[in-house]
Design a protein that fits this description.
The complex is a heterodimer. Chain A is built from 15 helices and twelve strands. Chain A is α/β, with parallel strands linked by helices. Chain B has a single domain, classed as Ubiquitin-like (UB roll) (Roll), CATH 3.10.20.30. Chains A and B meet through α7 of A and β3 and β5 of B.
Chain lengths: 418, 92
C-alpha cells in the first residue's frame, strides 16, 4: 500500500484500500484501519514526540493521516488527573481521571474522532459532513466543520438535551431532528449514506473516525510515564471507545513504547440502556438490543454495533461490565464534582458510579492503578441536576440580612444534626 | 401488494442490481428465504454458518428491528417493507 494504513475487515480480514466505507462488502462486518507497523517502527519513536505540542496530533504517524498532514487545531491533550480525594473516598491507592470533559473545541472526547474523520472527509473530497448523534458528536462535527470550511448536517433524536442542540446550532450546522431514538436515527443515517454523497463521520467515515479514539489511550499511557494501567473503566454506548483504547495500548506495545502487561477493561453503562453489561453479566453469546430509558442520553444506544467486540475485549481482558441507575448517576456526578472539582456529564457519572461499584464489589483491586475515562462535560447536561439544587431565597444587600441568613442556616443545620 | 425487501447498495451486486425485491412470504424468515433462493450468492452474507442472521446485519420490519418483534418468526403482511442494514455504530 502507498499509505501506511488501509481498511481491513474485522471478521474476514479482507483489505479494501482507503475509501469512504465502513463495512466489508463481502461479509458486511465492520472495517477498521490496519497499519504497516514494521515501517512505522522505523519512522517514529517516543523521542520524536518530545518536540511536539501535547495534543492528539502528536501521534500523527499512528493515525490515518496523509503524509503532508498539518494539524488543523489543538484537539486532545487533556489532563490525566490524579484523583487523590476520590481515591481516599473509595479506599484505592492509584486512581486517575482522564478528563476529556475539557477536550478542545467542544468539550467531549468526540472532538478526537471528528478530528481524524474530517481529515478523511477532505481526502475523499466531501463538501458536506454530518453524523447521527446523541449530542456530543454533533457538537464536535459542527464546531470543527465550521473551522475547516465544511457544510455540516447532523441528525439527532428529537428529545435531546436543549444544551446539546444549542451547542450544535451556534456553529451554523443544519440540524435534522428525528422523531425516534438514537438507534432509529442511526438506521436512517445508514440509508442516507447509502444514497447521498455526504461524509457522515460515524457512518461511511467510521473507520477513520474511530481511530481518533486511540489518542485517548495513547495519552493515558504517556501521562502515566509510558506505562499501561492495570484497569481502565470506560463508558460504553456503541462499544467503540473501549476497543480503541485497547488497540492503542496494543500498538504501543508493538512499537516497543511501553512494556507489555495485562490491562483489564471494564465497561460502564446505565441500567436504563445496558445491552453490553447485561450480556457480560449474563454470559450471553450475543447481546440483546434494548429500548433506552436513561438520563445518560449520550450512552443511550440500545443496539451497539461494536458491542460484540466490546464484550469480547471485556471478557478476554479479565474485566467486567456493570450498570447503575439514574439516581446513582446523579450521585456520582456530584461525588466527582465535590471531591475532584470536575463537573462531568451524565455519561461521566455512569463511568464514575460504575467504577465505585466495581471497587466495592472487589472486581477492581484497591492496590492497583485504575484510570476512569471521563468523556463529556457537565455543562451540557445540567438538566439532570436541576432538581438537586433548588434556587435559594435571595436576601437584601444589607449586613443584617446576611446575619439573619446565617442564623437561619445555623438553626437549620442544628435541627438537621439533632 | 406484496412484501418488499429493500436492498442496500453494497448488496445489489448479488441481486443483479435490483434495489428492491418483492416477495409473498408470511414472515421474516420466509422473506429472507425467498431472497436467498432467488439470489443464492447473497445467502452467505445474510446468514452465518449456523443459519443465524449475521451478527453485523440488522433486519427491520418497517421501522422496527425484528429483534423487538420476536425475531424471524414475526409475521409480515402485504405492503410491509423489510430493510437490510449493515450494523453501524455510533456513540462512545
Amino acid at each position: 500500500m502507498s499509505d501506511l494504513y488501509e481498511l481491513r475487515c474485522r471478521e474476514c480480514g479482507k483489505t479494501w484500500g482507503n475509501s469512504p466505507k465502513s463495512y466489508c462488502e463481502d461479509c458486511f462486518s465492520p472495517l477498521e484501519i490496519t497499519y504497516d507497523y514494521e515501517t512505522l517502527k522505523k519512522r517514529v519513536s517516543r523521542e520524536k514526540l518530545f518536540s511536539r505540542p501535547f495534543n492528539m496530533w502528536r501521534y500523527a504517524e499512528l493515525l490515518p493521516l496523509p503524509e503532508d498532514f498539518s494539524p488543523p487545531n489543538a484537539t486532545g491533550g487533556t489532563p490525566l488527573v490524579p484523583a487523590a480525594n476520590l481515591a481516599a473516598r473509595w479506599g484505592v491507592k492509584n486512581l486517575f481521571l482522564k478528563n476529556d470533559a475539557v477536550c478542545f473545541p467542544s468539550l467531549s472526547f468526540k472532538d478526537r474522532v471528528v478530528g481524524t474523520a474530517l481529515v478523511a472527509a477532505r481526502r475523499f473530497e466531501f463538501a458536506t459532513v454530518g453524523c447521527s448523534s446523541t449530542g456530543n458528536l454533533a457538537n464536535a462535527v459542527a464546531a470543527q466543520a465550521a473551522q475547516q470550511g465544511f457544510d455540516a448536517c447532523v441528525f439527532i433524536p428529537a428529545d435531546l438535551e436543549p444544551a446539546k442542540v444549542l451547542n450544535t446550532a451556534v456553529y451554523g450546522a443544519r440540524i435534522v431532528r428525528i422523531n425516534g431514538n438514537y438507534d432509529q436515527v442511526n438506521r436512517l443515517c445508514a440509508q442516507i449514506a447509502d444514497r447521498y454523497q455526504w461524509g457522515l463521520v460515524n457512518v461511511n467515515l467510521r473507520p477513520y473516525y474511530s481511530e481518533g479514539s486511540k489518542t485517548h489511550g495513547y495519552e493515558i499511557a504517556e501521562q502515566l510515564g509510558w506505562r499501561l494501567p492495570d484497569n481502565v473503566v470506560v463508558p460504553v454506548a456503541g462499544g467503540s471507545l473501549i476497543t480503541k483504547i485497547a488497540k492503542a495500548f496494543r500498538e504501543l506495545v508493538t512499537l516497543g513504547w511501553v512494556e507489555e502487561k495485562p490491562v483489564r477493561f471494564f465497561g460502564a453503562q446505565a441500567t436504563g440502556c445496558s445491552p453490553i453489561s447485561s450480556a457480560v453479566k449474563r454470559d450471553l453469546a450475543r447481546f440483546e438490543p434494548q429500548k433506552p430509558n436513561t438520563i445518560a442520553r449520550s450512552l443511550a444506544i440500545g443496539n451497539p454495533a461494536d458491542g460484540p467486540f466490546a464484550i469480547k475485549l471485556i471478557r478476554e481482558s479479565g474485566g467486567w461490565a456493570e450498570d447503575i441507575s439514574d439516581r446513582e448517576i446523579v450521585e456520582a456526578i456530584k461525588l466527582v464534582a465535590e471531591t475532584e472539582g470536575i463537573f462531568t456529564e451524565t455519561a461521566g457519572g455512569v463511568t464514575a458510579g460504575v467504577a465505585q461499584k466495581l471497587i466495592l464489589e472487589g472486581r477492581i483491586s484497591r492496590e492497583e492503578t485504575t484510570v476512569v475515562c471521563i468523556t463529556g462535560n457537565g455543562l451540557k447536561t445540567t438538566g439532570a441536576l436541576t432538581a438537586e439544587f433548588p434556587v435559594t431565597e435571595a436576601i437584601a444587600p444589607r449586613l443584617e440580612a446576611f446575619e439573619a441568613y446565617l442564623d437561619n442556616q445555623l438553626t437549620y443545620a442544628a435541627g438537621f444534626n439533632r | 401488494m406484496p412484501v418488499t425487501i429493500e436492498i442496500p447498495t453494497a448488496f445489489r451486486r448479488f441481486t443483479d442490481g435490483a434495489p428492491k425485491i418483492d416477495c409473498g412470504a408470511s414472515n421474516i424468515a420466509g422473506a429472507l428465504n425467498e431472497l436467498t433462493t432467488r439470489f443464492p450468492l447473497i445467502a452467505r452474507h445474510v446468514r452465518d454458518d449456523s443459519g443465524q442472521i449475521r451478527q453485523f446485519l440488522n433486519v427491520y420490519l418497517n421501522e422496527e428491528d425484528i429483534r423487538f418483534l420476536g425475531g424471524e418468526s414475526c409475521a409480515v403482511k402485504d405492503g410491509d417493507r423489510v430493510l437490510l442494514v449493515p450494523s453501524i455504530a455510533g456513540g462512545i
